[in-house]
Specification:
It contains seven helices and 14 strands. By secondary structure, the chain is α+β, with helices and mostly antiparallel strands.
């Protein structure tokens, strides 16, 4: 793994930030990631390499999240404000297009090991919308401010928190041994969470999912082109039109047949390879994967 993006030293994540104390709960609008099975598998692959390191607290799949926008401590937000905020967020988010991001290689940062979301811009834009809705309900003086430089917000999913001062090199070395492909994720739901950090972990006691994009029988936004292409190839494999061992058309051919870019084709191939449906053979192309032989 490249050292680019890593820090040299880690510190304890579990210091008490301003306003926090045992038993105090907080509201936030974050993405719970447990519903994204492919991402959970990627996290578990990297966590497997970290299990021998007692100075890291691995995050259980149920508490995996992508931090987006804080709202306020529960004892400072009225129940009526939470109800109004939930309704306004639901109405606003349903008009938006879900962000599509990819997770791949983790970074070791000062207090956590995390998977950055790429590209970050769609989540930054969504955060700005959510921030605006919270400000409408609570007032500008009560909402967590956005950074002046948007790039300061780096959307990510943490896989482990540091619980001590430590060198990064041993962590980077074991992560480098993990072989894993990129995982694309459609973030079509965000969650209004009520959580605490009493057990050296962010654990929520309430979670209200809020859909991003249309719902209730309305026409859904068109899938990204890479997802449409992946769906088509899945159908061809399931129907037998593409049999095990068959070679898929080249990138240039798929671009011509479907009017898409090479980037779209490559993204679709990454998804299908991750799902175990196809495999690339260097210098030859991409082939439908042979079904594993059954042992008698």
């Amino acid at each position: 793994m490249s050292r680019a993006g890593h820090v040299d030293k880690m510190r304890d994540h579990w210091w008490w930030r301003p306003g926090w104390r045992p038993g105090r709960h907080f509201y936030a609008c974050h993405f719970s990631m447990v519903r994204h099975a492919s991402l959970v598998r990627l996290v578990e692959a990297y966590q497997g390499s970290l299990r021998g390191l007692s100075t890291l607290d691995l995050i259980p799949s149920g508490w995996l999240h992508l931090t987006m926008q804080g709202i306020g401590f529960v004892d400072e937000v009225r129940d009526s404000e939470v109800v109004e905020l939930t309704g306004r967020l639901r109405d606003r988010l349903v008009t938006l297009t879900p962000p599509v991001v990819t997770f791949h290689r983790p970074l070791v940062r000062p207090e956590a090991v995390y998977l950055p979301a790429d590209p970050p811009e769609p989540i930054r834009a969504l955060r700005a919308v959510v921030h605006g809705v919270i400000a409408e309900v609570l007032g500008e003086d009560r909402v967590e401010h956005l950074p002046r430089d948007a790039a300061e917000y780096r959307p990510h999913v943490s896989i482990a928190y540091s619980n001590a001062r430590q060198d990064v090199e041993p962590i980077a070395e074991v992560l480098n041994c993990v072989e894993a492909g990129p995982v694309p994720v459609v973030l079509d739901r965000v969650d209004l969470l009520r959580f605490h950090r009493d057990h050296r972990m962010y654990e929520w006691t309430e979670a209200v999912p809020l859909r991003i994009g249309t719902d209730r029988g309305e026409q859904m936004p068109a899938k990204p082109k890479w997802a449409q292409l992946a769906d088509l190839i899945r159908e061809q494999i399931a129907s037998g039109e593409l049999a095990p061992g068959d070679k898929l058309p080249s990138t240039a051919q798929l671009c011509g047949q479907h009017g898409v870019s090479a980037g779209v084709v490559n993204h679709a191939m990454i998804v299908l390879k991750t799902e175990g449906l196809v495999e690339g053979v260097h210098g030859l192309g991409v082939f439908v994967k042979e079904a594993p032989s059954e042992q008698a």
